[in-house]
């Protein structure tokens, strides 16, 4: 159980050994504790070289010390950072000394960021963006995370919430003070015109959720097709290493194999699957079941077939894009393009550049209509959908009373508020902050 009256500390600079170890301290005793360790505090937000000692006078190390009196700090509390040499023994001794102070304890996962949220320094979207920024592996993931941490998306949601709140206020004023001269009688007409506009804005924004999730989680590309169509060879060619076992024996691949690629700054998750055919062999049938399940969840299916045989275009429960690929062009005449979108050979590399460009073109097409101020998590999508549905009920329920329609507007605003954490979201916080590292 977190106690925000405690002073917390943690190594915030990553794994050891390292060139530098940064220990972060935050809480009511942060500056006093730091003062004891270093003798005298430097001016706020100015680094000073200090000797760090135990309370018994034993030298731990010499390093840089910075202080950040609250509320002008990351957490909004008094905070300090001690930069020491990144050896395991040095950092361990410093952490042990900090733990000996009364009211000081090691921080839990994400506790610094949670305190920043609790103290109004960040909202929930910005906190999630920070977690995504730390985890970002591609350029587009970094850009999306920066967009969220910068507060632009939060500002958009807060503006929408303000419009909903103002609409409710005007409707309730018309209900309560209909006989007063200073309350216009047709306020609701203006309100509903704006709510129809807001409904369109929300719908357009929600349409970008698929792309936002692709940027954050990766474009899911599944290689499917008959046995010996060259699926595993293509997987190895795209990975530029031997990921999958390749043999002449049909049915070699039994389970789903997965690798992550970085294509033009986008994360792409590539899956190799078992060959699709009718079989009575138990293990192979399970591999085919898993292959079809993975294909159904894909964004794109690369449907492979040896040149001369048709590529499968229909997959159960899949309604996305299928790219038909004729394989083994090194031993077969190139198809005229009627049966395949692309012909290639994993052995010679022919067609790989064209496949790469097809994937890039697909990503650019998906991104063309959107900025990166996009919802990128299932939580965002769910709450935006709830808000849009409530707003839709408010707009279309013309036969209902104004009081009922105002309640629908309240529900729409409540769902938007839950995205940024502006309403009670205590049940979400433990899950979200558990994703963070200890020092963040």
UniProtKB/TrEMBL annotation:
Cofactor annotation remark: Binds 1 potassium ion per subunit.
Organism: Rhizobium calliandrae
Name of this protein: tRNA modification GTPase MnmE
Subunit details: Homodimer. Heterotetramer of two MnmE and two MnmG subunits.
Residues the record lists as binding K(+): 228, 247, 249, 252
Annotated positions binding Mg(2+): 232, 253
UniProt keyword annotations, A-Z: Cytoplasm, GTP-binding, Hydrolase, Magnesium, Metal-binding, Nucleotide-binding, Potassium, tRNA processing
Main localization category: cytoplasm
Pfam family, one: TrmE_N
Residues in the signal sequence: none
UniProt-listed HAMAP family: GTPase_MnmE
Cell membrane listed as a keyword: no
Localization in the cell: Cytoplasm
Cofactor: K(+)
Family: Belongs to the TRAFAC class TrmE-Era-EngA-EngB-Septin-like GTPase superfamily. TrmE GTPase family.
Role: Exhibits a very high intrinsic GTPase hydrolysis rate. Involved in the addition of a carboxymethylaminomethyl (cmnm) group at the wobble position (U34) of certain tRNAs, forming tRNA-cmnm(5)s(2)U34.
């Amino acid at each position: 159980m977190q106690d925000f009256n405690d002073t917390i500390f943690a190594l915030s600079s990553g794994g050891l050994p390292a060139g530098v170890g940064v220990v972060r301290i935050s809480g009511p005793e942060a500056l006093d504790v730091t003062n004891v360790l270093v003798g005298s505090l430097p001016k706020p937000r100015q680094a000073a070289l200090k000797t760090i000692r135990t309370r018994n006078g034993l030298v731990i190390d010499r390093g840089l010390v910075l202080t950040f009196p609250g509320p002008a700090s990351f957490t909004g509390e008094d905070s300090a950072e001690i930069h020491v040499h990144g050896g395991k023994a040095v950092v361990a001794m410093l952490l042990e000394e900090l733990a000996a102070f009364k009211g000081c304890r090691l921080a839990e996962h994400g506790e610094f960021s949670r305190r920043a949220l609790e103290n109004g320094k960040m909202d929930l979207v910005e906190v999630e963006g920070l977690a995504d920024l730390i985890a970002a592996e591609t350029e587009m993931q970094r850009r999306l995370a920066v967009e969220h941490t910068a507060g632009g998306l939060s500002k958009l949601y807060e503006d929408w919430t303000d419009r909903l709140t103002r609409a409710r206020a005007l409707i309730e004023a018309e209900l309560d003070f209909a006989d007063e001269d200073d309350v216009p009688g047709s306020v609701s007409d203006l309100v509903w015109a704006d709510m129809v506009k807001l409904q369109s804005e929300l719908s357009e924004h929600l349409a970008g959720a698929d792309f936002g999730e692709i940027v954050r989680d990766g474009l899911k590309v599944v290689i499917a097709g008959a046995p010996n169509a060259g699926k595993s060879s293509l997987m190895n060619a795209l990975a530029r290493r031997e990921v999958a076992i390749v043999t002449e024996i049909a049915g070699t691949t039994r389970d789903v194999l997965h690798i992550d690629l970085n294509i033009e700054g986008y994360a792409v998750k590539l899956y190799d699957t078992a060959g699709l055919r009718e079989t009575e062999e138990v293990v192979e049938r399970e591999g085919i079941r898993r292959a079809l399940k993975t294909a159904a969840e894909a964004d794109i299916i690369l449907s492979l077939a040896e040149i001369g045989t048709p590529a499968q275009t229909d997959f159960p429960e899949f309604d996305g894009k299928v790219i038909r690929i004729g394989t083994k062009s090194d031993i077969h005449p190139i198809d005229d393009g009627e049966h395949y979108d692309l012909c290639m050979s994993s052995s010679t590399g022919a067609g790989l550049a064209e496949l790469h460009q097809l994937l890039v073109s697909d990503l650019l097409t998906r991104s063309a209509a959107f900025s990166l101020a996009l919802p990128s998590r299932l939580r965002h999508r769910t709450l935006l959908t709830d808000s849009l549905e409530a707003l839709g009920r408010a707009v279309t329920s013309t036969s209902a009373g104004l009081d009922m329609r105002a309640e629908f507007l309240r529900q729409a605003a409540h769902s938007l508020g839950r995205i940024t954490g502006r309403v009670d979201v205590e049940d979400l916080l433990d899950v979200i902050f558990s994703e963070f590292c200890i020092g963040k």
